[in-house]
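Continuing the batch. This is chain 6 of the set; chains 1 through 5 are on the previous pages. Same settings as before, nothing changed between runs. Recording input and output for traceability.
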Amino acid sequence: MKYTITGATGHLGRKVVKELSKLTDSKNIRLAVRNPQKAEDFAKAGYEVMHSDYYDVPSMVEAFTGTDVVIYIPSITYNVSKRIEEFENSLEAMKEAGVKHLVDVSFMADQANNPFQLAGYYAYLPARLASSKLSYAVVKNSLYADPLVPYLPELIARGNVIYPVDDQAMSFISRADSAEAIANVAVRPYLRDKGADLPFDPGKEL
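Output for chain 6:
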């Protein structure tokens, strides 16, 4: 199986590469990145690195060709229309490249009345995938715990968090735990190919 990871040089992407490398040989892993210079350490370690830009479909087609499973880590833009454009471009490239399987990294913010800025994108995603003819899994993260500690002084000064949670409880996950789950979903067909949303519980064994 050939696995291609988008956004592989980001905070989460690097951890997904690390975790996936525990489950399959590095020769089976391709890194699709916008700036290959940021992936020089991976290239030196023997990983296949290819240029891929969410706004350049031909570059994605080239990066995805020969791929069995795409692990799609979206960009960090908070513009919903841009997120959708990036994903539509990616779907077009996957179709043209003949990709059959997708693991999409998402977030638990797809409720119909959720006022979070990106909730529209997360609500669009599963419905769009249902019509894509891909076999897929959507891995829904909660908030990342990693940046929370250095962020605490600002949160204390604000007297609130920036997310619209009102007085409700919040759950967090580390990027390392998320990456481990994503990698395991990617290599396990019974998790990967059901066309389903997979909220990740770090206390539950995969």
